[in-house]
Amino acid sequence: MRNILFFISLDRNCFNTQLEGIYRYSRKRNWHVQVVEKSLRRNELRKTLDFWKPSGVLVEYGEARNVDFSAFGDIPVVCIDIGRRLPHPRMNVVGLDSAAVGTLGADYFYSLGFEHFGYVGYWESMLWDRERRDAFV
Predict the structure, then answer these.
(1) Residues 49 and 72: beta-carbon distance below 8 Å
(2) What is the CB-side half-sphere exposure of residue 133 using CA atoms within 13 A?
(3) Could you give the residue ranges of the DSSP H alpha helices within 72-126?
(4) Higher pLDDT pick, 107 / 11
């Protein structure tokens, strides 16, 4: 059985659906997904990787802001939800097409016949929010 580590902050409810999907996908492939709610500081990360010997790693990007991605060596890394920053060149990214979401939202309001509507953005500057807003406008 392959071990997949998922570094995530469990205090964020928005990842419950993602976890369900990851678990469903992994069961079909006989993978073990281990959720790790630890710091990604290099010394702790190395110990965690040595213990689990993962075939791959998922990282919720909010947890990966200061990660030295060279610590993963040859282990494939996929980041979820890049948030406010552009991805590190070492990472693969899975996320939403924020521009498409903004366009769909505006098109929906137009289809209902609304002539006046606006976009209410996220309270903090985030890459996905800027992309969504710009497409909505």
Answers:
(1) yes
(2) 12
(3) 98-111
(4) 107
